[in-house]
Records
---
Amino acid sequence: MNQSPSHYNTANTRELVLSLGDLAHLFNAPRIDPLSNSAPEVLGVSGVEYLFDSLHLNKKRQRARTLVLLLPSGKTSSSLGTETTRALHSLADRRIEQERLALRNTYRYGWRVTGVALLLLALCLALASLFTSELTEGMRPLLRKTFEYGFEIIGWVILWHPIDVLGFTPLAIRSRIAALQTLARVEVVIRPDPATKS
């Protein structure tokens, strides 16, 4: 099957190329069409989601400045590029706002659970030290060691969740923001899709 360019022009890192059967498919998921020349239509996802996935965690593609949309002959016009650029930027800006809100909420939640986790860690370490003190000398050595090391492990394991929230979750959110910032920056150019010409 003769496929048109899917989403990325390797000869020009400043240009993304996306083939669509209809401009509406840029923002709305089409029906799955395994025989389509358009990758988003084959997958049944909107063009924006397809582009977002291709840009996510890909610094090279995030340098793109132009999005070339290849549409069937007869579905292109000179005014579509400007209108589509404005619509794409508006959508990307709103999604960036959502991600930034999620980032702020993540930090807020992270610091809150960090305080709780530190209190629980202190409690677990205090209980662990109890089983090394004279107060528990009458217990069997194996049982004392089990409780001592058990409470220490529990305390440090509890601390992992806030580390994950504050250390790793923001990285994922920031990477999504970077991909969306590319979509909020590119200029859209509409061209006829050579693959649809008779």
Note: The chain has two domains: 15-91+184-196, 99-178.
---
Amino acid sequence: MKIEFTDDEVETILAALDSYALGYRSEWLKTRDDADLEVMGSAEWCWQKIETERRAQFNENNSCGGCAGCPPTSEINNEPTASVDPFEIPTQSNYEDMK
């Protein structure tokens, strides 16, 4: 099943899960009841699942090959277009000679 949420809805869900888990963590500190740990762990698992999917979608939507106006990744040329001789770069010692 695939469910779509807006960014604001995802933020609200993540905040609610975090608060829910924190409440059970506080309760567990008082009672040391393993059931509280299980509920807290389930909330944290859901939080991780949603956050992981959100990050994956963000990375997918913001990759260079998918941007409007950017060439597809297969067309990006990473070959150097010019060579630079490091001995021709001005340094403090030879800068005075270039003036």
Note: The chain has three helices and no strands.
---
Amino acid sequence: MFRNDRCTIKRPTKTKVKGEVIYLPETVIYSNVPCHLSVKALSPVNQSESTAKVLLDYVLFIDTNNSLNVTINKNDIIEVTQGVSGQTIKLRAGESQKYPLTIQTHCEVDKVA
């Protein structure tokens, strides 16, 4: 599998002050990590309205034999820059599965509230 994409992994941080939870800016945990982002259409195009809807499945692959010893937690923010197009996609990590040669993380597009 080609690893021509690069990602930056950020972790949401929070602290408690006088009983209140305060959310701080994300902390960069890893940067410039070689990876591969797989994007798969889960459904055919639904053209019932004026705009088409396509459900996409994002899976991020990271080699486990790199020197960074990467760990991805659920809800980490992952910014993937695709090698071919240079496009950057901001994702939120879901469940990760660690295998002998790779970490596979299912992601969704990060929606800003």
Note: The chain has no helices and six strands.
